[in-house]
# Entry
Amino acid sequence: MPLPRTLLEGHIRFRRDEHAKNRGRYLQLAELGQSPTAMVIACCDARVDVSAIFDAEAGALFIMRNVANLVPPYEPEGKYHGTSAAVEYAATALKVPHIIVLGHSHCGGVNAYRRGVRDKVPEQGFIGRWLTLLDGVTLVESDIFAYGDELAFEFAAVRSSLANLHTFPFIKKRMEEGLLALHGLHFDLGSGELLSLEQDTGRFAALPEP
Ligand SMILES: [Zn+2]
# Structure
């Protein structure tokens, strides 16, 4: 089966428009390497277009996407930790000043877990095990009251990923040195709006105006 025609045509448009217009920038990125403004840990969901949400150009964001935007705890004895490897590279090699965990509405992964689908996933499958990262997350009463169960669970997943990021020694160290800040955001597919986890109140609220 060949590559879908929409992708081939899209690539032709990319070369003709975006790449041709910014050739100098792409050459510079190729020669000098990347120096992203932030790492974003987002969901694989096709509807969460991270670069579009932030209107970010190539080179601006170091993006890790996985099912339900989860970060496992620091497990140096583990086997193949793709997410942890990306976090390590972003923090220690690229030295990004910001790591953003970006949740989103209608998240299939979070909601599958919420509906107990995890229990029906075969033992040998990967998703069920991955979603056990949500075991023990606690919902915040005020989130449920203000936004309902579904969003409250998606918020809790973001909080859990942020808490797990704190278990990485190199993250903790860079935060203590004032060189790294963590952020929790939630993207609403319908409205396109972002809610931000406020440090002082611990609640999700509309983003402040720049
Ligand atoms: Zn999702």
